Amino acid sequence: MNEISNKWIGERTIRPDGIDKVTGRAAFAADTSMPGMIWGKVLRSPHAHAVIKSIDTSKAEALPGVKAVVTAADIVDFPVDTPVPLGIQDMRWMCRNVLAREKALWHGHAIAGVAATSEAIAEEACALIEVEYEVLPHAIEIDDALAKDAPILHDFITFDGKPSNIAGTLEHTKGDVEAGFAEADLVIERDFTTRPVHQGYIEPHACLVSTAADGKMTIWSSSQGQFMVRAMTALLTGIPQSNIRAIPAEIGGGFGGKTIIYLEPMAAILSKKSGRPVKMVMTREEVMRASGPTSGSKSTVKIGVRKDGKITAAEGIYWLQAGGLPGSPIRGAVGCALAPYDIPNGRTLGYDVVSNRSKVAAYRAPGAPIGAFGVECVLDEIADKLGMDPLDLRLKNAAKEGTKAVHGPTFPLMGYVESLEAAKAHAHYNAPLGPNQGRGVASGFWFNAGGESSAQVNITEDGNVVVTTGHPDIGGSRAGIANICAELLGIDYRRISVLIGDTATIGFSNLTGGSRVLFASSIVVTESTKKIIATLCELAAKIWDIDPEAVIWEDGEARPAGANAGQFPPLTLEELAARANESGGPIGAGTQLNTTGAEGGFGTHICDVEIDPELGIARVIRYTVLQDVGRAVHPSYVEGQMQGGAAQAIGWALNEEYLYDKNGKVDNPGFLDYRMPVASDLPMLDTHIIEIPNPKHPQGVRGVGEVPLVPGPAAVRNAIHNALGIYFDDLPISPPRILAALEGQKAAAE
Amino acid sequence: MTKIHVTTTINGEPEEFLCDPNETMLDALRNRLGLTGAKEGCATGDCGACSITLDGTLVCACLMLAAESDGHEITTIEGMAEGENLHPLQTKFLESAALQCGICTPGFLIAAKALLDENPDPTETEVRFWLAGNLCRCTGYDKIIRAVMDTAAEMREAAQ
User: Fold this and answer.
1) Helix or strand or coil: residue A579?
2) Which of chain A's ends, N or C, has fewer CB atoms near its CB within 10 Å?
3) What's the domain range around B64?
4) Would residue A145 count as lying in a domain?
5) pLDDT value at position A1?
6) Confidence class for position A621, pLDDT limits 50, 70, 90
């Protein structure tokens, strides 16, 4: 599988983009500006649900300083009856997401955009746009959207032959669920809710678009995929892809939320109309009102077991909020919910429910934490009722190589059992607990992904290396790529520059998502580097006048081997680069592949909480993430993914939620009231890396980044149950909820 | 709107600029002076991505008017390293992988330096509460807290 010596793979090298990021030099999208640049601002709907009867922009256009205005009339319309999928999105919904078309579907939905010589003038002009609305009743929560008299968001959506807010379903079945429950000695069924949570990237969406007189356009933007930006902007504006160059700025966090675009098509049209470079940057309030989040959900999970803990049947029914346009991550919920277990009879069913909230965007293992939450909570209760250790219950039912999952595939070699065994043996799991403290565990699965990637590896004339790939680096992937290339070439990693190409300088690469970047990019970088090594060996063979097969590449130099061993002094990369023109010319190699072999990932979390019974605060006091990562190419950034996922899970479990007023307006669109974890909320987050190399990858890599969010909310909830003896089935388990439950417990005891 | 003439010192260098009366220090730094190291994450003082120091005191540049810098000394992330010599915190953040996307990093570095200037031997709890005004969504703070603690220990040792 790999014959490499591991000089660099597994080393905690300094990331290639590090210096720029600690000195302020790194250019994020909002840091870019151009001569002649003007500013774009967005007018947003003041209603949660309204028909747009007319838009009059004449007063705005007449304001001095205003250079262009854009409305949905400028955006290509994709009729609702013809699907146009692009990745996980559908352009029918994207064209209505970017600018409201027939209706405003949530408070904050973009209605029009203005470009002016200053942000203040653009804002003033937005206020001069006259929009005639017919305000409609709105539905925010799932139950409101499913009620008999619910306002129907889209008349083209029907379910069971009737107009409905259910926009789609997805079901997986295996075996005979009813027969399985009949065989069970214990059946537990519970209803759960989770709240929509925002990805919470610290960098608001931003872009700068410049259009030349010949129509050629350059887009600098913060996204998880420059090729996605190019394709979507092209489709929404009607500009050919060859006329758009999308340059990936450094991205200030995405977590899935930047796998779609909001501002780029507006800025493109504003730039085209005005002939000026147009910069658009969302405020935090706009981010919270109009981008992301992931779905809120309700679910019913039912699991049956024999007395020995063996699962006989499991069923999970999920309703996920899509926001105002279809497309919630039901696939992740129904696909991942039962995946960690070997279940003879299983069924999962998901409903995609539209309501008057911003359209959801991907968030770290989209849907999977929602799917896992109910399952991992019910398993906790089963372990409790059977008097079984919760890790033993999971071990008894753990999926392993050869297990056929409820969602279809048969699992290959993987390290789920190892994560459970490591958790059981971990000092954390065996440490004593104090008063008001509790411990919970949970497991989770994510599919991971392969897909299209491109890499170009060039040897510079002075014998160093430039690697270019096509994926925005969201959390240290360039460091991993440097390690892999250094390992293969046998040179110091500091001799390798790793860059992210733009759409004009590197071949098509699918976006940064699905935990695919290091997996896929290391495949194409490895292929390119191997081609280069072959070229270098051929060059040395020509210089020595021996057979190329008689040359080996070791420690950064070509050496004569076999019968010729020791006959010639080795030729270093520098020496060969200087003599490249003696055979074939410049040394470089590109690879473009649709990569396969990304196997799923599993992890297990252990969480300790301490409850403050007076304030109702559940404080996480110890946390350990255990995960099979295949191969930790750069352990620090693998740990970073595990820690970051856990922190987001803790926020989801304990605090984060949107509060809506009666008019369907978000009441807490900022970081003060939308309470993400801060440093004083968290303990150190311990990690335990398990390496069961992925046999289908040259370095054994498995996706890492998304799994660590999946088990977290349930691990926290199970810990709180362990501390208080109270089952919380609704997230977040915030102080008011804990206080109410404690009061209920006290009243019941009296 | 009549612009205000501001004479100030930024990263040790004299600086003059014109700004609007309602212009924030953050906008002046980013849009007038080309110092884009301080980031806007919220514009409400909740995320700390725009952290700078005013006469050595840690402030959010988004909560300060540009005109208020007149006659004072501003330090931004661009002034933290001396030429090619990184501040020990910058080096430690790199070595410890205390950043992922890097958007919050300038703010954390400025805030952490302000802490160590004031308290060279902080406890973990003190570091966590001092940095509670700086949001990071990528790291879970673990490696950041460790980097600050380790830098403090090394700087104390070096000072002896």
Assistant:
1) coil
2) C
3) 4-79
4) no
5) 39
6) very high
